[in-house]
Amino acid sequence: MDTKKLLYCVLCYFFLSLLSGQQVVQGHLAPHHHHDHSHRHRHLIKSGGSSKLFVFGDSYADTGNTNKSSSTVWKDPYGITFPGKPAGRFSDGRVLTDYVAKSMGIRSPIPYRWRKFGIPLLIYGMNFAYGGMGVFPTYASIPGPNITTQIDFFQNLITDNVFNISDLQSSVTLVTLAGNDYFAYILKNGGAQGLESLIPKVVTQLTVDLERIHGLGAKKIAVTALQPLGCLPWSTTTSSFQQCNGTYNSLVKYHNLLLEQAVAKLNKETNDSAFVIIDLYASFMSVIQNKGEEQGSIKFENPLKPCCFGISSNYSCGSVDESGAKKYALCEDRQSAFFFDFVHPTQEGWLAVYAALQPTLKQLF
């Protein structure tokens, strides 16, 4: 390799490190600093591992794909804990993808949007997840590829030999579905009435997507069960963040039951137990009910209350007015908050969920 090509690769690698907001320390995520409780993070890391991680889904997994013009997550205070500035994660810091990668002993895979700059980082896989997406078209105001299209992107990279069959066979695939199909329905219809009829359609399409990923050669596919939508601040605001919405949670349980049945059927048909459910419902509820204490986390004072929220219903976390003045309030101690905004956990929240998910994640490796 000549000097110019070598310099180009080094610059690409450096550029990607800045964009993805990550640091490398011997192939692992760098230890956390400052108020980050690194001793609790380090013992969860699985040593070694050369597998790739491929990620599809939405904001619970997105690490930088979402368009900057259509989302406030590229503005303060997102990313304030990690990497210290907005980097496209829907949190103050790390999200589910980062912790799954950590448990594999690898760096978080490169976001699809940076693929042309990140050739050296392809060894960790790729993240195709976009915030706001679902299995069907969701919000007109948030352009992006649904999961079917994300898989199209993946298939094109396989066709172009960016990834090969051995990459797939030794990899782990993470698919997150955090409810955008349902949120979009509720916003469009002004409530959840009739939502129950949409649930089997969503699970059926998700099953088709999972089958397709397996058909491409993936051997271990983790799919999230729906988290308790009725406990998100988006739902609990009407009770001043004091109690979960039982109606929404009963709909979530129906979704998760159908998903459980679909995954059991897929595992029977493929005969290799390729599919594993990451139970976000149980893990979220465990953390919320125990205020995080069971996971060895800092106590979440009120787990249902977000750390960051708009000062009125017209604004959301990260909003500013025409003059650039902040139109949101931010809590003093992010580590005592389970939710960062109205839908997404804080980094500390995700860490507590991740600790609760340890037995499930071990099935993937």
Characterization of the model:
The protein has twelve helices and ten strands. With 365 residues, it is an alpha/beta fold. The protein has one domain: SGNH hydrolase (Rossmann fold, 3-Layer(aba) Sandwich), CATH 3.40.50. It is 36% helix and 9% strand. A hairpin with a 2-residue loop joins strand 1 and strand 2. The chain has a six-stranded parallel beta sheet, with helices on both faces. Strands 1-2 form a two-stranded antiparallel ribbon. The protein has a two-stranded antiparallel sheet with strand order 9-10.
**SS strand fraction:** 5-15%
What is the fold named in CATH at topology level?
Rossmann fold
Overall 3D shape? globular
The chain-level structural class is alpha/beta
What is the correct CATH architecture? 3-Layer(aba) Sandwich
Count of spatially separate domains: 1
Oligomer: single chain
Largest sheet: 6 strands, parallel
Q: Span from first to last CA?
A: 36 Å
* CATH class categorisation: Alpha Beta
Counted beta strands: 10
Protein name: SGNH hydrolase-type esterase domain-containing protein
Signal peptide: 1-21
Keywords: Hydrolase, Lipid degradation, Lipid metabolism, Signal
InterPro entries: GDSL, SGNH_hydro_sf, SGNH_plant_lipase-like
